[in-house]
Structure formats: structure tokens, C-alpha cells
Fold this sequence. Notes:
The model is unreliable at 164-169 (pLDDT under 50). The protein has a five-stranded mixed sheet, with helices on both faces. With 193 residues, the chain is of the alpha/beta class. The protein has a domain at 31-164: 3-Layer(aba) Sandwich (Glutaredoxin). It has helices spanning 2-28, 40-50, 65-75, 78-87, 103-116, 143-157, 174-192, and strands at 36-37, 54-59, 89-94, 123-127, 133-137. The protein is globular, with a radius of gyration of 22 Å. It is built from seven helices and five strands, in the order αβαβααβαββαα. The protein starts with a helix and ends with a helix. Helix content is 55%, strand content 12%.
Amino acid sequence: MKTTLLMMCAAVMVAVCAQAQSGTQAEKEPKKTKGWVTDFEQAKKESATFKQPIFAFFTGSDWCGWCVRLKNEVLDTKEFEKFAADSLILFEADFPQAKKQSEKVIKQNSELANKYGVRSFPTVFLLNAEGKQLGKTGYREGGAEAYVNHLQKLLDDAGVKVEKTPVAGKAPSAYEKMKAEKAAKAAKAAEKK
């Protein structure tokens, strides 16, 4: 009886130690921001950490018709979302007319627009972690698939390799992790009801 009890206690201790160790490893792993970043320094840090280029979207979100079209036809689609989650750090420099922004964001966005020579909206830059331009584009007709292919070509031309589909046996992509987290949250919310 004592032997069985000691073995059960040892098994529980091993499980607790393994769980604690995996928890501390997960805490140390950097996490990529889901969605859009508005702090350029944060975008550069994430770009360096995850070895992914920055998709810098210069927009007038509440007045620019072409910006709204790009957002609706491409940026808000599942295809672009998947490509971005696996391949890009998303940064938005917004120049709204009615929406309120902090003085810090207004100053940052104005300085970036001057630095990169933004003359119209929407303007999109692909940048490396140091802020060096890898490619430049804007609104393009054709929808999400055509836009993702265009971005892929710009990155290829700049010598940046981005995997479009995970290799068999590879760890889940950022998009797949995001989908799993959303599903887990939905399941948890459903359990509470």
C-alpha cells in the first residue's frame, strides 16, 4: 500500500514539474501581435524577432475611398489574414480626419510619411527590421489572392523567402495557432452557458 501511494505521489510530482517547466518555456517564448500594430518600434522589434518583413499600411481610414477598398477587398479577407499571420508583421500608419489619435501616434506617423515619401493613400511598404524598404505598392485590383501573389513577388524580388504553405511535419503556423486559440475561447464560452 505504501509503495503504491509513493509511486502515485512520484507520478504526480513528475507531472507537476513537467507542467511547470513547459509553462516557463511558453512564458519566455515571444508572442507575435495578432492583427495590426500602431507603434513602429514595436513592429521593428517583432520583425527582428520573428524574421518577418513589416507590411506598413499608410491609410486615411475614415476618408480615403481606395484605402477602404483595399481593406475590404484584401486586408480583411481570410486569405490575406493567413498570409500575414504566417509571413508579415502588420503596421498601420493612419491619417484619419475624424478619428482621435494620441499626439505620439500623430507625430510618429507624420515622421514616417516624410521619411518614406508618402504622397498618396493607400501606400504600402514592405520593410525589413531596420526599416529599409523592400518593396512598395498600393491598391491593386484582383482581390486577395492576386494581392498576396503580388506581395510574394515583391518579397521574392527583394530576396526575402516566405513560405506560403506549411511543410508536412512542421509545427503549426501562426495562423493555425490563432484559429486554435479562437476555437478554444469559443468552446470555453459555450461551456459557461
